[in-house]
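Example with several molecule types.
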Amino acid sequence: MARYPTFDEYRKRGNYQDGLKRCDDLLKKNPHDVQLLILKFQLLSAIKGDAQPVLDQLASRQPPILDLGDIISIEDAVEISQRDDYPSPNSAGPSVAKLWDNAFKASTSMNHRLDLLSLRFSRAVVDNRLADAQQALIQLKALQPKNRVVYMAHAAVTQMLSTANDDLSARLALLLARKAVTDKFDADDALDCRVPGQIFALQASQKDLESISDTRFKESKQVYEALHDGNRKEVNGDSAPQAEAGAASWDLSGIPSLNQHFADLTKSSASLDTVLAFATNSLQLFHTASTSTSDPRGRGAADACFLSISALTRAYELSSDQRYLLTAAFSAEALLKHNPHIHEARLILIYLYMRLGLGSLALHYFDSLNIKEIQHDTVGHVLFTNLSLTHPHITTVKRNAVFEPLKRLSLALAMYTKHEERLAETEASVLNHSQTGMLIDLRELRDHLRLSVTRRITYLEQRRTARLLNNALGQAAAPMGPRVLANWTNIVDNRDFAAAFDFGYNVERVLYEQDGSQPEKPWILRALAADSAWCLANGHPTLVKDVDALVSELTSLEPSLDSLKLDGSEASVLHVEILAGDLANQTLRTLLHLASNDPELPQAAAAMLKALERLPITELVSKEGVLAEHLTAHYNLLDVLRTVLKTSKLAGEKAKEQHDLFDTARKLAEEHCTALRDHAKEQSKRVSAAAVREYVQREERLKDSMGLLGDGNLADFCQAVAASAKEGWEGVTKIN
Amino acid sequence: MSSIRPMTPMDLLKFNPCNLDHLTETYNIGFYLDYFTKWPELCKVVEGENGQVEAYILGKVEASPYPAPVEPYDPGLKIYQKKFPNYLPWHAHITCLTVAPSARRLGHATRLSVTLEEVGDAQNAWFVDLFVRVDNVAAIKLYKNMGYSIYRRITDYYNDGSDAYDMRKPLKRDKQRKTVRANGENIKVHPSEVW
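Resulting structure tokens for the full complex:
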């Protein structure tokens, strides 16, 4: 038979209909050709045609398909066709199951049957098809009824399939677990016996847990947590120094009490004056500790410094006065001069500098922490959130070394794929290594990484950085499927907000949040809208297929937009983000109607223009800050305005009836861009070390205690801060 | 109150208090999964009140990948002391023992090491050993206080060319304490002689 193109070749050219015609022509001569039928299935799936009859034909073929390569090809084709289904199906379906079953029944060799089922199981695990994995295990159990590794794996997978404690899977898992205990599986020293205990713990079956308390079945984290929850077992020996009752004393021995004292201050909503008094005393204690030779735990200076940072952050929370954040940064820098190895200080400096818009300093400290691998998911958020709106450009972090935000974001994203693959591989090979007690934990970690909010933030930041720098889209990561909105908003939060210090007041969260809320679903929706609008305006596929759903969800999310203003309050930083998000959303809506040139286009365009007019550009460019105030607003608005310009140009060509409206929008967007860039240029010239110093020292209540940390140090600090702010503003001027 | 429990893959999301420290390396996930798969009973954490990992230990039990030159292995035999001092019989090894800086001097390292020694005894190991940088004075002192001694010095062991001390503590099987020796810091070996 003549050679015909492969599916990949049709996919590259996009001529699926040609492929279908050719398939049908060839099938007339060879109606049962497996390869042709697989190709037809793939082509029909690609155009969302009715591919099921072809699949049924393959499954019912006589004689049945026995070649494992063909079965795998069919299963792969089904898996690809399901890629954008949400939630992801946990089975390839009955037709594929029939193919495996037919091959199994036709095999007469025990070894071949075992290999077939093991292959079916491992493929199902890697593809996240738990129901198929369970089926393979059931058949393996029937073949090897005495194999307790298979038994345990089956119990674990059955538990993983349950969604509630009273559903069928949960009840079956419990039965399997109890049988393992009754039949004393733990007498086999070589067997991993964790699964039954894990099932009892996950189903909160207290009586069963008690029955295994003196057996090997209990040796898992889940059982440990269930037995010790709220009643942690004390390890023999020391515990961390506890606060003593009575007045706090401002010396090294009093630090545990001071921790408690500060926690009490925040709980009782102490006034700004009280908090600042605490900050002052803490700074003085820090100075004392850093010159003391008596410090039994070696953490006195660090703890005192962290107390001062906590108090200063609280002062900022009460007043929105950035001087308190600057003072906190100064004391952290002083701590690192005293001891460069205190990683908590480096971490908190990243939070502080990102909050202050001083991106180059944040990049420097992130680089110095040498964050690797899975840490990108747990602490990557500290830098990556709004990195594209703070410092998308390359910066020098040390002599002969630069930090490239785009490259670093790409590296962080690559981690997820590698980790998911390795986790899947370990899960899939459980029948070889026999550690069935890992299955539930591996699955949990896989899910956490797959649904991670940091992953989504990093992905959107990477794309925004690329488009701000006019980098080719090809540098962006491959699509993170399924390509539906729900995949972006059903998230799991692995962000670690306990990696620095916490004296009853979580500084990390306060510094990361905007107006009391963390970048999460609303942030993702706004960033997605901006990204999707840019994609449509430039003829690229969007990250989500259901863009209409994105528009609706963002529209319903936003508050009354007319009440948002830039009034210098902390909240107004978020307000600009909301208004930029609204503009992105209206632009997206316009592009959708433009594509179909439908009657709602004029209304959508008018809404886009209104969103444009609502932007507080005049207020923004009238601000003469000392640092990088509202720097992120500049980048955010420029990003969306560039898309508005592109949209207006596109619409001008396609929708001539709305020419005037789009021309007005184009001119206004151009004016706004010019105003923002000019303002950034002025700011970059205005920033100076002297101005920073004068600004900081205007807060009289902290002047003396800051002076204790060294006048020369303060001068250097102001110099570095000014240089960073200048670099930030100069970056804005490069966005064209 | 902090407590010791088994370490699991999910703990990799909670170990920043330890792993952000400059002396603790963060490896690719395969490294950790290898330990969880092969030696789960030798992977433990100390969990703090807030659920963070304050300390953890990763260990293994193994022997040199070739038969004992003279069987049965007896560390008291002169041939093992003179001719085959680098042969490693069945033993436990501490690959990684790390404590968050904010949780040091609370006894976590000792407790974790003891749990590993208990597993080593249960598996009939001769001793526990570990590698430590020769300039890590604090760690060397800590291990000596726990009953470890220097067995040998491995030259150019680390990537940066630094030497390592191989420190050992005999377990119950080694009643005569023949697997350890005095003045180990003066006995230098090349990494190629170490398995």
